[in-house]
Amino acid sequence: MAVTRLALFAGPFGIRTCRLPFWTGLLTIGCTGFTKTERAWAPALRRASMSGGPGADPAASLDLPPYLKNINFCQQCGAKVQVRLPQNDSVLRPVCTGCGTVVYINPKVVIGSVAVSEDESAVLLVERTIPPVGKWTLPAGFMEMSESTLDGALREASEEANVVLDAASAELMCVFNIVSSSQVQILYLTKVIDTSRLGAGSETSDARMFKWADIPWENLAYPTVRLSLEHAMKTFLPARRERTGMQQILTLTKLADGTFVPTHLTSQK
Questions:
Q1: Could you give phi then psi for residue 262, rounded to 5 degrees?
Q2: What residue ranges carry the coiled-coil annotation (predicted)?
Q3: Residue 217 within a domain
Q4: In whole angstroms, what separates CA 9 from the centre of its chain?
Q5: Are residues 243 and 135 both part of a single domain?
Q6: 245: left (phi over 0), alpha (psi -120 to 50) or beta
Q7: 114 and 142 co-located in one domain
């Protein structure tokens, strides 16, 4: 089945979307409109290095991003670090002024799930107690050391909604590259197999299985939550049901702002 991949491009002049032909249901979003800011700073850093006196910090006069500003001391020896362009490198990095250790800062990996009921008529959402407080989102969080992305998604659903997900039914559905916050978000589509303890977790004030028609579209936490839910309904679930011999009827409803959202999904053989 030929489906559509939705690509979101976020750059200095705004956000645009385009649809590309693709042969799977995987939604990939890459914020590729940004240039390599560190590379853009490299010439200025070299000029600052040549003009500064002995012991001067060549990056002190540059407007660096927080992830470079927030590292002040070396974890190896405790000496101060300076942001420099290491030899044979193209990216600015904190470098220890004592032992020369280069600090490599990498994006955070967020893992989560679009968890649906056994009959796929409802989806799990949780209400946040941390900013943005009171908004509904998918169960998700930062990946821990020594766990797989799927294990992390199952753990987050357990922690935030006290449910058990079916690992066997899980399929990779969304990969979001959020350059502005240095995150990679990975979401699985899976089924909830135990809701006996469904309820709020340590970082949530509520957890519910929403019928597709009852999703609080106007009160979702992030654009990626809406994109994931829409992709699940419009593309991923229909493609999966076709593989299993099921048919779907999708109903769209027009909102006050003129946009359309999926509000009802029925399935039949």
A1: -70, 130
A2: none
A3: yes
A4: 14
A5: yes
A6: left
A7: yes
| Separation of alpha carbons 260 and 247, rounded Å | 22
Tens of pLDDT along the chain (269 residues) come to 333 334 343 333 333 344 433 334 666 665 433 334 445 555 555 555 544 454 556 566 667 788 888 899 999 999 999 998 898 888 889 999 999 999 999 999 999 999 999 999 999 999 999 999 999 999 999 999 999 999 999 999 999 999 999 999 999 999 999 888 889 999 999 999 999 999 999 899 999 999 999 999 999 999 999 999 999 998 888 888 777 654 444 555 666 776 666 555 544 44
> What does DSSP say about strands 140-142 and 108-116: parallel, antiparallel, or unpaired?
antiparallel
My answer on whether 19 and 148 are in the same domain is yes
Q: Give the HSE-up count for residue 188: Cα atoms under 13 Å, Cβ half-sphere.
A: 24
Domain boundary among 55, 77, 96: 96
CB-facing half-sphere around the CA of 30: CA atoms within 13 A: 9
For residue 35, give the DSSP letter: -
Residues 166 and 69 in one domain: no
188 belongs to a structural domain: yes
Residue 102 inside a domain? The answer is no
In the chain the beta strands, taken as DSSP E runs, fall at 3-11, 14-22, 27-30, 81-84, 93-96, 108-116, 122-128, 136-137, 140-142, 164-178, 183-194, 204-211, 247-254, 260-268
Domain assignment present for 101: no
Same domain, 226 and 125: yes
pTM > 0.85: no
Residue range(s) defining the domain that contains residue 63: 37-96
If one counts the domains in the chain, the total is: 2
From first CA to last CA, the distance across the chain in angstroms is 17
CATH of the domain at 146: 3.90.79.10
